[in-house]
Amino acid sequence: MAFLSLYLSKPSTTEALWVSDCRIIHGCCIQMPAARIRFQHRSAGVRSKRHTGRLNVRAAGTETDKTKPNAPEVTPSDTRSSAVNQLLGMKGAGKETDKWKIRLQLTKPVTWAPLIWGVLCGAAASGNFHWTIEDVAKSITCMLMAGPFLTGYTQTINDWYDREIDAINEPYRPIPSGAISEPEVITQIWVLLLGGIGLAYTLDVWAGHSFPTIFCLSLGGALLSYIYSAPPLKLKQSGWIGNYALGSSYIALPWWASQALFGTLSWDVVVLTLLYSTAGLGIAIVNDFKSIEGDRAMGLQSLPVAFGIDTAKWICIGSIDLTQLSVAGYLFATGKLYYALTLLGLITPQIIFQFQYFLKDPLKYDVKYQASAQPFFVLGLLVTALATSH
What we know:
Blueprint: E1 13-25, E2 28-42, E3 45-46, E4 48-49, E5 54-55, E6 58-59, H1 79-88, H2 99-107, H3 112-126, H4 133-161, H5 163-169, H6 174-177, H7 182-207, H8 213-229, H9 239-262, H10 267-288, H11 292-298, H12 303-307, H13 309-333, H14 337-358, H15 362-388
Antiparallel strand pairs: 1-2, 2-3, 2-6, 4-5
Helix pairs in contact: 3-4, 3-9, 3-15, 4-7, 4-8, 4-9, 5-11, 7-8, 8-9, 9-10, 10-13, 10-15, 13-14, 13-15, 14-15
């Protein structure tokens, strides 16, 4: 079982202006006689020598790159937040030299949480989890398999095959910046993969399975992770297939593994979670909006690239809302009235936040929307899991 998550400035343009004496340009003090100066910028900032903060300036008839003062060696964010972003594997991370911190960054710990929650949902859906030392130990082991090991494997292999696109969108990331070598990355991929598969087999033995269900799920998820990121298939090149693969990895796979660990994985639950994974497709599209320029440059047909921002944002919220409403309808039809009403109550604030943030500007408010709406979405997953256990 492996799980995916992708968290990516526009092509440089050239501008010209006239300055004399001392001018402040984007925080840099430049002294020179009146001259026409050309400078390049990326997106909303002056193009600078990365990690040195030095501004390259060329005046007519002169050659100079002198600036003062030099900026600190971090990416464009304050030092404290960039350090936190580095440890969590988030965009805007600062430069780091500690090899273990770099390895942790590659696994993107911020992406572990949905998979750990999926394990919790599977345990709840089994109807057979008890607050005993053994069951708690089993669930923690399953969370380690799903999160640090197999999600870490997925994120590392994704960064490896995304190193060219990251050089455009996030050049400070460990691989494109050269902070970690190729052999070290390959070693990390194998250690995490084999460790995750080993934990899966251990869980099968622990649960007394005659057929290694969790082991097979982990192998299938690992294969899905590989073909998602690696050529020639590279599923992420297709907005529909890639995002659905991502959504099912977040929702269905950890749920299946945990339910198989504590009980029996039934076909009705398999179908229900695959349906719920359509909502995961919508959530995956949210992350595509921040990567439009890099995806377009590398020929990746994400939905915002293929359909444009306005159409893609409606596809995104449509898949999220219609899926959850369909599940609520299923719960109502099967006599789970209170669970259905609770799920409807959790869908309502998500729709409010969609109109308040996401539909206004998905590029500007994607993070704020996710932070506001996602807690209600994951609570809805738990409500559905509890409903299937009764």
